[in-house]
Specification:
elongated
Length: 363
């Protein structure tokens, strides 16, 4: 019991530390991208936090398996280097028993990754799409660019301004044409204009100051002129148009109900995250064994190389399946089969087979 508690404490502590570092790196990278989009006017600043949250959730299908792999590799590598494994074996503690604890660790994590990959991740991607669709509509409604014609309310209102100040908040020498219901058209000329939102109702207004409003009939036979100090125009909110969703944002049941090649590839990719979480810690168990004067972390570069090859082959196989270059029955499964074969070869070379070692210490 004490040995089992010690091992799980060490492996979980290392895993969580690595995961925290990878999450911070990922969030920093995403944050910079979102800031660049906000600086260019493609993304409102208030949307960054929500998008960063949802993107970080969906990224766990990669970060958790990698953290589990590195956590197991580093923990067991240190235990080999400090001769803790040798001491355990000399007291009758079977390597198979240690492997069982690694398997339990991977099974627990695979359940977490499965819930993210199959359910939470796609839902987070859908939320990201909804936020971007809504913000894109808001930006389209709020952006008034000087020296060009801007349309609102599906073309019913046309706005032109010669220049702007206060970072685009105040427009100067403004022309507005409104196609109202009935037989009249309004033309407004104003010295300045700005956007204002009613804090109580949330309605969006275009406030014009020091100008003239002309009401013209459709046949141009009569018209009126009204001078004003301030005149407000209600801007109707735009309807949110949904973009076409990518497969990774679709719910898993939807992908199964519509089994196109792209959808099948996405399903296999989601299942691959679960399988990876099961297999990678087992691979790390066998790669962690060091001999002689090797350092604590001698196998990290080897492990990272194996992980990169494995992950790139999965990504390539997903693309091949989407393009119809390989059948779904082959899909991504052959990559997992190759990793399982590697694990079995290492297990055979290290003599770790169930039943070959008698457990004399119970945990």
């Amino acid at each position: 019991m004490i040995l089992r508690r010690y091992f799980h404490h060490e492996i979980w502590k290392t895993f969580l530390a690595i995961l925290a570092i990878l999450v911070l790196i990922y969030m920093g990278h995403r944050f910079v991208r979102f800031l660049n989009q906000a600086a260019s006017g493609d993304l409102p600043e208030q949307a960054i936090a929500a998008l960063l949250f949802y993107k970080t959730i969906s990224a766990q299908v990669i970060l958790v398996p990698l953290s589990a792999f590195l956590g197991t590799l580093i923990t067991l590598g240190r235990m080999h280097h400090d001769n803790e494994i040798t001491a355990l074996v000399s007291t009758g503690y079977s390597p198979t028993n240690l492997l069982r604890h690694v398997a339990l660790f991977s099974i627990v994590l695979s359940g977490l990754v499965g819930s993210i990959s199959l359910y939470l991740g796609p839902n987070a991607e859908e939320k990201s799409y909804q936020i971007q669709d809504r913000m894109r509509a808001d930006l389209s409604a709020q952006s008034i660019h000087p020296a060009q014609f801007n349309t609102f309310d599906h073309g019913k209102n046309i706005v032109y301004a010669e220049s702007s100040t206060d970072q685009g908040k105040t427009l100067h020498h403004v022309f507005v044409q409104r196609n109202t219901s009935g037989e009249k058209t309004e033309v407004i000329l104003a010295e300045t204009a700005e956007r204002q939102v009613d804090t109580e109702t949330g309605e969006d207004f275009f406030i014009l100051r020091q100008g003239h409003r002309y009401e013209l009939s459709k046949n141009r036979q009569d018209g009126t002129r009204i001078d004003f100090e301030e005149n407000g125009i209600l801007i109707q909110p735009l309807e949110i148009e949904e973009r076409l969703r990518k497969a990774w944002a679709r719910p898993t049941p939807y992908l199964l109900e519509h089994p196109s090649l792209k959808n099948l590839a996405e399903v296999q990719w989601r299942l691959s995250a679960v399988i990876s979480t099961l297999l990678l810690p087992l691979l790390a168990y066998f790669l962690s064994k060091t001999e002689g004067r090797s350092g604590k972390y001698a196998r990290i570069m080897t492990g990272l190389l194996v992980f990169l090859i494995y992950n790139n082959l999965l990504a390539a196989s997903k693309a091949w399946l989407e393009n119809g270059d390989i059948p779904p029955i082959v899909g991504l499964w052959w990559v997992h089969g190759g990793l399982i074969t590697l694990i079995l070869i290492l297990a055979y070379r290290q003599g770790v087979w169930p039943g070959r070692h008698r457990n004399t210490v119970r945990t």
